[in-house]
């Protein structure tokens, strides 16, 4: 189906699609106001589960993928209660500690072949599979977005206490989101393992996390389409600019992340950002109109 | 006994790390992921000074000032605008992660990802014997520096006018500003001091390992966070005690259980303390932080 693409282009397309799954995973947690730094830990669980199933047993790829998704989801569910107890930067730190503990366990365990990682994983992933997986994810996201659960999630993110007052079970919403994010990241990790043939503990580190965060935060935390479209847009852009893989890429992503946090805290898909810009464009050349809440001088003088 | 001394020696490194982090995180409540990079840049600045033939104490000072300035620049360029816009806590975390990636990449490109030898001449190396036990000199110096830094910080924060200003800003920035405190100045001073302390820790770690690389700070960052969580938020003496305890735990776990546990101790400590007793040893109980 994608034979007309050059191998390099196809490789980059697959990379972008798997990265999109990770972006979706992080977006799901951000939607409910969870500051989780754990996605790479779940991706590691998924990647290693799938790799071990297909290299040590005769089971087909689908079983490994399913096992990876379920195991990552289960670990998410297991650690959700302690992590969700934490608030703010403590949640960020707790989830990061969880992810690092997972990666270190993989690195020191003989069962996972330690720091050398696993090689010779059969290549099973075709672009079609990735598109199907993403289409399913998008469908679920859109249904979730429009459902009672989606509105509850938004309420939880905007104001936890008010949401609780409205009868929303805040913990349950967050628990579902954290578990689902774990399962999605695990699935992404499994697909990545079956695409690149080789995995090692070091690939689940900060660099990928920053890239994913850049996509999610620059894309915006409103609708899922924001981060997804940004992921694809930036992938195409960086191919055109030929910066892929170099040192510059990391610097560009880091700077982009910081600049967008400063300029557009809600991401580029935030509607109020464009409202403000439009107002400024409309008022160009004119002196700024007086603010409404300031009483006019004539009224103030007796 | 020797194991305990080894643990305390390792813990001295951790205590020194913790003292640097506790000011910005414990007092001002900013989780700075770029701290590790500031530490590494400070070590490289000191290394450059040593290569120029500068004596050791002066080189340490160069490293401290370089890291302090970098730290203040980070605050002015990135964190101050975020504060001005009352950005949520998580923005600070993500922004400092972004900055840390940029700083790492610049240093990696500059050093070609090579590990550089760190000259130990002029540093107190070797060991001396106390009651038949070997005590490494460098670590004793580190512990001494950590304790002096702790005493200095405690005196500054509790007994001086500018220290009171820091605590006022930490408690409530707007109220402090209404009372005439220049909050940006307070932040700049704190970031400068934190950067300087980070550089000292980085330089001594580099000297004890006799090498330094662009990534040598990365592993230390989560250790420093573990120290603060263990010792208790906002507690300066907690940083010392937390550091020493973590060092002893790590050495005991390595020698009596299995060496494979060494790497995982810091993360396990963070998780366990956050879940069981989020206020650590000396921290105040704060419901909002649990």
TrEMBL record, chain A:
Protein location: Cell membrane
Primary location: membrane
Protein name as catalogued: Branched-chain amino acid ABC transporter permease
Membrane-spanning ranges: 12-30, 37-55, 61-81, 88-109, 129-145, 204-224, 251-269
Keyword Transmembrane attached: yes
Membrane topology: Multi-pass membrane protein
Species this chain originates from: Nonomuraea ferruginea
Keywords from the named record: Cell membrane, Membrane, Transmembrane, Transmembrane helix
Region (Disordered), start-end ranges: 283-302
Compositionally biased region (Basic and acidic residues): 291-302
Domain of life: Bacteria
């Amino acid at each position: 189906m994608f034979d007309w693409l050059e191998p390099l282009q196809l490789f980059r397309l697959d990379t972008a699609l798997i990265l999109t799954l990770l972006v979706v995973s992080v977006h799901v947690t951000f939607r409910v106001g969870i500051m989780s730094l754990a996605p790479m830990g779940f991706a590691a669980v998924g990647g290693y589960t799938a790799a071990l199933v297909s290299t040590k047993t005769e089971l087909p790829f689908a079983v490994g993928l399913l096992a990876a998704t379920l195991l990552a989801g289960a670990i998410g569910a297991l650690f959700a209660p302690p992590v969700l107890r934490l608030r703010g930067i403590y949640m960020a730190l707790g989830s990061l500690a969880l992810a690092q503990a997972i990666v270190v366990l993989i690195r020191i365990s003989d069962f996972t072949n330690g720091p050398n990682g696993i090689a010779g994983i059969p290549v099973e992933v075709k672009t079609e599979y990735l598109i199907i997986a993403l289409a399913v994810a998008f469908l679920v996201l859109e249904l979730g977005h429009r459902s009672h659960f989606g509105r509850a999630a938004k309420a939880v993110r905007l104001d936890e206490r008010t949401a609780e007052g409205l009868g929303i079970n805040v913990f349950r919403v967050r628990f579902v989101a954290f578990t689902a994010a774990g399962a999605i990241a695990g699935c992404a990790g499994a697909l990545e393992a079956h695409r690149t043939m080789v995995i090692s503990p070091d690939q689940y580190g900060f660099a990928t996390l920053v890239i994913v965060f850049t996509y999610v935060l620059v894309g915006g935390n409103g609708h899922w389409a924001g981060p997804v479209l940004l992921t694809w847009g930036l992938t195409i852009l960086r191919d055109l600019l030929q910066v892929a893989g170099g040192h510059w890429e990391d610097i560009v992503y880091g700077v982009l992340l910081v600049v967008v946090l400063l300029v557009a805290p809600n991401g580029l898909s935030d509607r109020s950002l464009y409202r403000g810009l439009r107002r400024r464009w409309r008022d160009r050349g004119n002196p700024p109109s007086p603010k409404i809440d300031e009483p006019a001088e004539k009224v103030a003088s007796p | 006994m020797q194991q305990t001394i080894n643990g305390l020696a390792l813990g001295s490194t951790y205590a020194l790390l913790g003292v640097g982090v506790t000011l910005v995180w414990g007092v001002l409540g900013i989780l700075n992921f770029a701290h590790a990079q500031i530490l590494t840049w400070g070590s490289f600045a000191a290394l450059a000074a040593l290569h120029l033939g500068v004596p050791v104490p002066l080189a340490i000072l160069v490293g401290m000032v370089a890291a302090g300035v970098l730290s203040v620049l980070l605050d002015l360029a990135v964190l101050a605008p975020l504060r001005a816009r009352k950005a949520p806590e998580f923005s600070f975390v993500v922004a400092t992660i972004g900055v840390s990636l940029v700083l790492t990449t610049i240093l990696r490109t500059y050093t070609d990802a090579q590990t550089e030898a760190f000259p130990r001449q002029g540093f107190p190396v070797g060991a001396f014997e106390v009651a038949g036990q070997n005590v490494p000199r460098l670590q004793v110096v580190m512990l001494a520096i950590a304790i002096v830094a702790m005493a200095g910080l405690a005196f500054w924060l509790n007994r001086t006018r500018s220290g009171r200003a820091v605590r006022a800003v930490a408690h409530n920035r707007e109220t402090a500003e209404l009372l005439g405190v220049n909050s940006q100045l307070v932040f700049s001073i704190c970031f400068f001091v934190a950067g300087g302390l980070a550089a000292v820790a980085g330089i001594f770690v580099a000297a004890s390992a006799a090498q330094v690389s662009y990534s040598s700070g990365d592993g230390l960052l989560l250790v420093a966070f573990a120290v603060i969580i263990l010792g208790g938020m906002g507690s300066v003496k907690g940083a010392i005690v937390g550091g020493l305890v973590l060092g002893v735990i790590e050495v005991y776990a390595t020698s009596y259980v299995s060496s494979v546990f060494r790497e995982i101790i810091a993360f396990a400590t963070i998780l366990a303390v956050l879940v069981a007793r989020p206020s650590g040893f000396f921290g105040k109980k704060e419901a909002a932080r649990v």
